[in-house]
Amino acid sequence: MHVIEPAATGRAKCRGCGRAIAAGELRFGERLPNPFADGETTLWFHLECAAFKRPEPFLEALSARTEALPDGERLRMEAERGVAHRRLPRVNGAERDPSGRARCRACKEAIAKGTWRIPLVFFEDGRFEPAGFVHARCAGTHFETVDILPRVRRFRPDLTEEDLAVLVAELTRAAGA
Question: Which residues of the chain fall short of a pLDDT of 50?
Fold first, then answer.
C-alpha cells in the first residue's frame, strides 16, 4: 500500500524533481515490486510532485489517509486534473530550445531554436524516462488544457517571472487561435 508519512531523515531524493526531501517533511511513498530482488521497493516523492506526476497512486494514498494534509484539497484537485487529462503528468517543466533539432510530438514540426518547448517524461519500470518535447503553442491540444503553469513552476523553479509571463502569453495565444 502506498504511504504518506514524514521523512525520517533528509537523505531521500524525490523521484519527480530530484531535490532532497527534508527530514520531517511529509512525503509520498509509492510501493512497487522490486525489480532486482524479492519484495517491494518504495519510491519517494514530495507531495506536490506525486500529485503532478503520479496522480493515481497519490489519490489512492490520499483516500486511505484519515488525517487531513496541509494543502490537501489543492493537491487532490491537481491529481484529479492529471487523471482527467492523461498526458498532463508527462509535463517536466518548460525551456527554450537550445538547438532547433527537436521535433514536436504533437504537430511533428521542428521546434525552432530559442522558442519555448515543454519537455515530456514517461514513467516506466519505476523511473521517469525522457520522451521528447511539445511546442508551447501545441500544449493545449496535446495536454487537452493549457493549465500547465503549476507543473512548470514545480519542475523548473529557476524560471523567472518574465520567462513565465512570456510562456503564459504563448500558451494563451495558441489556445485563443
Answer: none
